[in-house]
């Protein structure tokens, strides 16, 4: 865990420097597409007095000046599968976005959906030396959380304090400056496979870019597609991507759980390709154009030309009814949603005060998905689209881009993480001193 | 979810038959392979480099400047080549200047008297025909203006290769007698020319005395006012660079005041008209003190006056 942990701190500084300089890029590395947005920071919002309330409640101190998407290559399940192909795809997206923005971008904030995220809830408690809580005390409280065994070869991706309790008062957002005796904190820790993150870093570095931040796409799509009261009262965001489906649960504006199902839209496509015996591109096209999850009697009569250029007349003139297509799509969608249901149940989602579920991501655009999801996930399901942010092109406003937009918000208003607080002073030197003594003992 | 009583699987599918002549089977879905080329690593780096502001400035400004400087250095570096280039340029220039369109073959002087005309031609000293570019018109005009007789001079090259010199001559208004020479002055006192003798210009009044040229305008005003006595006028004498004396024949003098001499003269002439003052035997009329004009009689007249009054005086040199 040390590697990513140390680089997180460096990335935070780099991100701050990049924002100071004014330009930062957003890179959403998905299994079906790679999106790159170029953000320009203009400082504080300017059009406040003309607009009344600023757009996005004053969050939009940035503007998107370049946007590009490209077909993803070499990414499966949200993880890099073929390094060279992915690098080329990143290069394509970054180059197009730079061309549109007409600036050079050096810093990139990336998100990815795979790497088997696992959530842990941690709790730490300290006695306050002084009765007033200082930033240093917060750092100590965070450091007092006992590290769970996250397993070999895994790294911490997010470690966010979600709750503070001072004596008997809990649910505090910011305990600093308050008076009490015991400070307790709850922390949400998200661990991922280390090798996946390392591959991603390596891949981005090979494009002459520096990683200024990294996030889980389940988290960032939750930021962008859940509205504020949903984040406050508790909601789950299901980001149905190409290769994996991310699940994140928010309450009190903090993510408290994240997970992913390693199934997504690409699996539906491959089902169609196998079922109808067509190439993947044709299957993708049939899925996006005629796909659905509820068959009606009308669909029996709607025949879809499959086409092909095999040279065999009979094969190339095949037709299939839409009902059959739905018959292929629906079981897979049900499987994905049921898997998501299992994850939500495991997380204890039913105990949350609000049972809102928001479906987003590219695969959530299947017609009739909300009805099917309501049957599997519960009644309070809606389809979510990302927030509108300044300068976002029309083509990038769909639900497939909710993690890109969420990453923009994450870049500008990141939540405090563990590594944003200083290392507690009493630990750092003592340990190094102990280590030095131990080294002496061992060697002489 | 197919209904149990499903009809044929492909109800609309055409029967297998030989395709008609010229029929191209069109597949519904034959998506053209989408072009999605990734930039090569080199192209990517080049684009990033090009988007670097410093590099852009360097390429937009630095490199062109450098190229021009390099070409200049290569072209003008060696002395021999530099000389050759300059010689070639000079040759071209020569060829253009010597074209017949630019040739000047006639010198035309207008507005000058014959003697001045000759003087100007001698002064310009151009060997016609000559190229238009070889004549410095401004310098020539300046040189001509140094002649005293020339008030204004304009030199230009007209159509048909005519170098025309437009002269405005100064008009002599006075003759200024100095020690031994006679100069002509114009109305502003500027020297125009020399005359050999007074009889050459009998129409002009004569002035003399130091600084007479500076008060030429005043002198002319006095002469104009002295019209009734003009036949008797011999000249004006500048006294002490301050005032004028009007000299008439019979050595009569009218001493005019320094300021307002014309008015004083007019008063005198009025007196003369009434009393025939100047026709009498007086030597001088002193008008310098305006409150008390004085006349000086000649010796004979004084003697006669005294005799008439019965005064007997002792004769002396006065």
UniProtKB/TrEMBL annotation, chain A:
GO CC term (a single one): cell division site
Gene3D superfamilies, per database record: 3.30.420.40
Membrane-spanning intervals of the chain: none
SHS2 domain mapped to chain residues: 24-225
Membrane topology: Peripheral membrane protein
Compartment(s) of residence: Cell membrane
A GO BP annotation: FtsZ-dependent cytokinesis
Keyword terms, alphabetized: Cell cycle, Cell division, Cell membrane, Membrane
InterPro entries, alphabetized: ATPase_NBD (IPR043129), Cell_div_FtsA (IPR020823), FtsA/MreB (IPR050696), SHS2_FtsA (IPR003494)
Domain of life: Bacteria
Protein family (similarity comment): Belongs to the FtsA/MreB family.
Assembly and oligomerization: Self-interacts. Interacts with FtsZ.
Function: Cell division protein that is involved in the assembly of the Z ring. May serve as a membrane anchor for the Z ring.
Protein's UniProt name: Cell division protein FtsA
Taxonomic lineage from the root: Bacteria, Pseudomonadati, Pseudomonadota, Alphaproteobacteria, Rhodobacterales
From TrEMBL, chain B:
Listed InterPro entries: Cell_div_FtsQ/DivIB_C, FtsQ, POTRA
Keywords: Cell cycle, Cell division, Cell inner membrane, Cell membrane, Membrane, Transmembrane, Transmembrane helix
UniProt cross-references to HAMAP family, sorted A to Z: FtsQ_subfam
GO annotation, biological process: cell septum assembly; FtsZ-dependent cytokinesis
POTRA domain ranges (all copies): 102-170
Name under which the protein is recorded: Cell division protein FtsQ
Function: Essential cell division protein.
Family assignment from sequence similarity: Belongs to the FtsQ/DivIB family. FtsQ subfamily.
Listed PROSITE patterns: POTRA (PS51779)
Transmembrane segments: 57-76
GO terms under cellular component: cell division site; plasma membrane
Species annotation: Gemmobacter caeni
Membrane topology: Single-pass type II membrane protein
């Amino acid at each position: 865990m040390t590697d990513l942990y140390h680089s997180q701190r460096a990335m935070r500084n780099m991100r701050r420097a990049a924002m100071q300089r004014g330009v930062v890029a957003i890179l959403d590395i998905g299994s079906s597409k790679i999106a790159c947005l170029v953000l320009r920071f203009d400082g504080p919002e300017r059009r406040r007095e003309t607009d009344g309330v600023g757009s996005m409640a004053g969050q939009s101190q940035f503007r998107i000046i370049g946007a590009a998407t490209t077909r993803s290559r070499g990414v499966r399940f949200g993880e890099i599968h073929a390094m060279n192909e992915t690098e080329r795809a990143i290069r394509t997206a970054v180059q197009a976005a730079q061309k549109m923005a007409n600036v050079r971008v050096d810093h990139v904030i990336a998100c990815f959906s795979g790497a088997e995220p696992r959530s842990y809830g941690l709790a730490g408690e300290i006695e306050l030396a002084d009765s007033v809580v200082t930033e240093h005390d917060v750092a100590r409280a965070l450091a007092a959380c006992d590290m769970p065994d996250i397993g070999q070869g895994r790294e911490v991706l997010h470690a966010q304090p979600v709750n503070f309790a001072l004596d008997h008062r809990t649910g505090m957002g910011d305990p600093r400056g308050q008076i009490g005796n015991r400070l307790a904190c709850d922390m949400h820790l998200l661990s991922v496979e280390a090798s996946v993150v390392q591959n991603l870093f390596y891949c981005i570095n090979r494009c002459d870019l520096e990683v200024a931040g990294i996030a889980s796409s389940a988290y960032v799509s939750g930021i962008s597609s859940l509205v504020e009261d949903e984040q406050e009262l508790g909601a789950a965001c299901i980001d149905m991507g190409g290769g994996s489906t991310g699940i994140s649960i928010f309450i009190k504006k903090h993510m408290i759980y994240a997970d992913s199902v390693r199934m997504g839209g690409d699996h539906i496509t491959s089902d169609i390709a196998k079922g109808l015996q067509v190439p993947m591109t044709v299957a993708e096209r049939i899925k996006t154009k005629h796909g659905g999850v509820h068959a009606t009697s009308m669909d029996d009569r709607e025949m879809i030309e499959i086409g092909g250029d095999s040279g065999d007349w009979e094969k190339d003139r095949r037709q299939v009814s839409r009902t059959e297509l739905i018959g292929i799509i629906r079981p897979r969608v049900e499987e994905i949603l049921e898997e998501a249901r299992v994850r939500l149940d495991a997380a204890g989602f039913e105990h949350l005060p609000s049972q809102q579920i928001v479906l987003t991501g590219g695969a959530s655009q299947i017609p009739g998905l909300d009805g099917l999801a309501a049957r599997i996930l519960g009644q309070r399901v809606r389809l979510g689209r990302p927030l509108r942010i300044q300068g976002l092109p029309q083509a990038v406003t769909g639900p497939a881009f909710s993690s890109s937009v969420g990453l923009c918000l994450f870049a500008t208003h990141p939540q405090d993480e563990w590594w944003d607080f200083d290392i507690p002073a009493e630990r750092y030197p003592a340990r190094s001193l102990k280590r030095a003594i131990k080294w002496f003992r061992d060697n002489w | 979810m197919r209904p149990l009583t499903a009809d044929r699987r492909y109800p609309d599918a055409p029967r297998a038959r030989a395709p008609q002549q010229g029929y191209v089977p069109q597949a519904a879905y034959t998506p053209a392979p989408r072009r999605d080329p990734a930039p090569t690593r080199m192209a990517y780096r080049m684009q990033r480099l090009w988007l670097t502001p410093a590099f852009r400035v360097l390429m937009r400004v630095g490199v062109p400047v450098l190229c021009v400087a390099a070409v200049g250095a290569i072209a003008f570096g060696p002395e021999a080549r530099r000389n050759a280039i300059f010689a070639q340029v000079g040759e071209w220039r020569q060829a253009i200047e010597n074209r017949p369109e630019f040739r000047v073959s006639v010198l035309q002087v207008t507005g000058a008297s014959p003697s001045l005309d000759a003087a100007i031609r001698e002064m310009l000293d151009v060997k016609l025909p000559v190229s238009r570019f070889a004549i410095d018109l401004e310098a020539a005009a300046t040189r001509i203006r140094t002649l005293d007789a020339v008030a204004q001079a304009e030199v230009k090259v007209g159509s048909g290769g005519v170098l025309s010199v437009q002269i405005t001559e100064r008009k002599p208004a006075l003759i200024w007698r100095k020690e031994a020479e006679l100069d002509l002055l114009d109305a502003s006192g500027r020297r125009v020319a020399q005359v050999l003798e007074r009889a050459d210009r009998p129409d002009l009044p004569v002035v003399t005395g130091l600084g007479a040229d500076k008060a030429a305008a005043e002198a002319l005003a006095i002469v104009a006012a002295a019209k009734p006595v003009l036949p008797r006028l011999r000249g004006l004498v500048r006294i002490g660079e301050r005032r004028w004396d009007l000299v008439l024949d019979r050595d009569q003098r009218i001493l005019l005041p320094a300021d307002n001499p014309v008015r004083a003269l007019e008063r005198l002439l009025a007196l003369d008209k009434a009393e025939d003052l100047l026709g009498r035997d007086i030597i001088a009329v002193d008008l310098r003190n305006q409150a008390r004009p004085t006349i000086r009689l000649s010796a004979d007249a004084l003697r006669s006056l005294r005799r008439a009054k019965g005064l007997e005086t002792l004769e002396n040199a006065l």
